[in-house]
Each structure stands twice: as structure tokens, then as C-alpha cells.
């Protein structure tokens, strides 16, 4: 009885019945997920593979020759989709990795960086804008909204504090 009901759903789906197709997919979704999880590790990739499988199955269900093999046919499509994603991911470098490497601060571990990070916020901001962002004193004054003389005095105090924390090494 159960087998006949499935065959009836497949028959209806092949005739264009969307509800029958959806029911078939719902009945096989857990299996699809388990198979996808074995090939792909990332949830987003698994979801993409399942979504692509559903679209392909829906588009090509009329080409299914043996209605009894619907699940096998569906899983075969899924495996092909998973393999495409897996192979694509092998060839690609994550954009996050590229951005991280491209913008990684090469001076991250230096004493200077540690010394700058230990400054009070108002001094750290002025030092960062002047030395690391190459802004002029007038630009810093406009950005922060303080007089140029205050920017200069903060730069001077910041340099002194950095020199102290770096044991007297001079900062230009």
C-alpha cells in the first residue's frame, strides 16, 4: 500500500502536480541532508546542494524512467550537485581569507603597536590618524573637531608616552 502511494505521487509529479512533487521532496529531505552532510561540511553548501537538487529534479522529473527509483534518482542528482560544490570549493580561496591576508596589519606584533594600543583613546586616535593613516594635522583637526594646536600637543604627549613605554626608543 505504502509503495503504491509513493508510485502514485511520482506519477502525479511527472504529470506536473506540484503538491505531489513537494510531498516527495518532504519525504526524502532527511535522507538528502544526511547524504549531503557526508560530502559537504558547511551548512550553506549543503543547503545549496539540496536546493539545486530540488530545482533539477523538478525540471527533469519527466525524464525519470522508472518511477520506483525516484529516491535513487533524487540522491544521484544530489551527489552530483554536492560534488560540483565540493570541487568548486577546492579550487576557490575564501574571500574572507583573501581580505584578511590583504589587510592584515604587518606591524601587529611590534612593540610600537603595543605601545600605541596602551595609550588613552584621545591620544591613540591622533597618533593613529597621523602616523598610520597619513593624515595632516589640519585634516585631523577637522575630523575630530579640535584646534590644530590641540592635535599637535596630543601628538607630542602621545609620542612621549610611547617613547617611555618603549624604553626610550625615539619616535619620529
Automatic annotation (TrEMBL):
Residues in RNA polymerase sigma factor 70 region 4 type domain copies: 115-162
UniProt keyword annotations, A-Z: Sigma factor, Transcription, Transcription regulation
Pfam families, A to Z: Sigma70_r2, Sigma70_r4_2
InterPro entries per record: RNA_pol_sigma-70-like, RNA_pol_sigma-70_dom, RNA_pol_sigma70_r2, RNA_pol_sigma70_r4_t2, RNA_pol_sigma_r2, RNA_pol_sigma_r3/r4-like, WH-like_DNA-bd_sf
Ranges for domain RNA polymerase sigma-70 region: 24-82
Statement: the UniProt record of this protein carries the keyword RNA-binding: no
Keyword Phosphoprotein: no
Assigned protein family: Belongs to the sigma-70 factor family. ECF subfamily.
Name of this protein: Sigma-70 family RNA polymerase sigma factor
Amino acid at each position: 500500500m505504502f509503495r503504491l502511494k509513493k508510485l502514485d505521487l511520482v506519477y502525479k509529479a511527472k504529470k506536473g502536480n506540484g503538491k505531489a512533487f513537494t510531498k516527495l521532496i518532504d519525504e526524502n529531505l532527511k535522507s538528502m541532508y544526511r547524504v549531503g552532510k557526508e560530502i559537504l561540511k558547511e551548512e550553506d553548501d549543503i543547503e545549496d546542494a539540496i536546493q539545486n537538487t530540488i530545482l533539477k529534479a523538478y525540471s527533469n522529473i519527466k525524464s525519470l524512467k522508472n518511477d520506483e527509483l525516484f529516491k535513487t534518482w533524487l540522491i544521484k542528482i544530489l551527489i552530483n550537485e554536492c560534488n560540483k560544490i565540493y570541487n568548486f570549493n577546492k579550487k576557490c580561496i575564501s574571500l574572507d581569507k583573501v581580505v584578511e591576508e590583504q589587510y592584515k596589519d604587518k606591524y601587529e606584533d611590534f612593540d610600537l603597536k603595543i605601545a600605541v594600543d596602551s595609550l588613552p583613546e584621545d591620544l591613540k586616535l591622533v597618533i593613529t590618524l597621523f602616523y598610520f593613516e597619513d593624515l595632516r594635522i589640519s585634516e585631523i583637526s577637522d575630523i575630530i573637531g579640535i584646534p590644530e594646536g590641540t592635535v599637535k600637543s596630543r601628538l607630542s604627549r602621545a609620542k612621549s608616552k610611547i617613547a617611555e613605554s618603549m624604553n626610550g626608543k625615539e619616535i619620529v
